[in-house]
Amino acid sequence: MSGRRVSPDEAALWRKVAQSAERLHRERKPDGGFPQPKPKPMKRPVVDLQPFTMGGTAKMPADDLAKPVTDRVAQAPLRMDRKAHAKLKRGKLRPEGKLDLHGMTLERAHPQLVGFILRAQADGKRLVLVVTGKGKHRDDDGPIPVRHGVLRHQVPHWLSVPPLAQVVLQVAQAHRSHGGGGAYYVYLRRIR
User: Fold this and answer.
1) For position 27, what pLDDT does the model report?
2) What beta strand segments (E) does 58-101 contain?
3) Closest Cα partner for 150 from 87, 90, 180, 108?
4) Which end of the chain has fewer beta carbons closer than 10 Å to its terminal beta carbon, N or C?
5) Contact 188/129 with Cβ under 8 angstroms?
6) Which residues of the chain have pLDDT under 50?
């Protein structure tokens, strides 16, 4: 379509032709105007695909999009005394209680953890140790990635949601003398 305007004679002729024409789709409502130009196609983003040659190796995305659990626990905001936290990280504070979750399923470990933490706070304890283990590396070559150490990843989450969120002041990875990457220090709030 050119950019010129339609004259009144051309518009009248078009209306006369449009009235005598029979519509193909009766359910559609007539727009009563001139045919509209087709919309311009949208530009699609260009995806940069790397060429692949036979015998080469493909770049596979990381199977765990979340940050490692050690980073998430370490980057949590500090809510306890700085000096006590420094002693805690160096393994100088002794835990007053210990819960070992080795070999438990998620369904069995969660109630054990909740009960242990609530009892520990009721007994006036401030620092407890929760041992999860590092997790087993199984020979799983399947297409779906499997996270190793399910309890190790799940326990910090459980400690940050109700009913334990109101009880727990700080969670930190244990010193290697108390279990290292397979255990957590849980610093509890005082009962008021």
Assistant:
1) 60
2) 97-100
3) 108
4) C
5) no
6) 63-64
Confidence at residue 31, expressed as pLDDT on a 0 to 100 scale: 58
What is the reported pLDDT for 1?
53
Radius of gyration of the chain (CA): 33
Whole-model pTM above 0.85?
no
β-strand pairing of 183-188 with 127-131: antiparallel
DSSP assignment of 126-144: -EEEEE----------SSS
pLDDT of residue 97: 94
CB count in 10 Å sphere of residue 172:
19
**186: which strand partners?**
128, 171
The CA distance from 94 to 87, in Å, is: 10
Q: Which amino acid would we find at residue 79? A: R
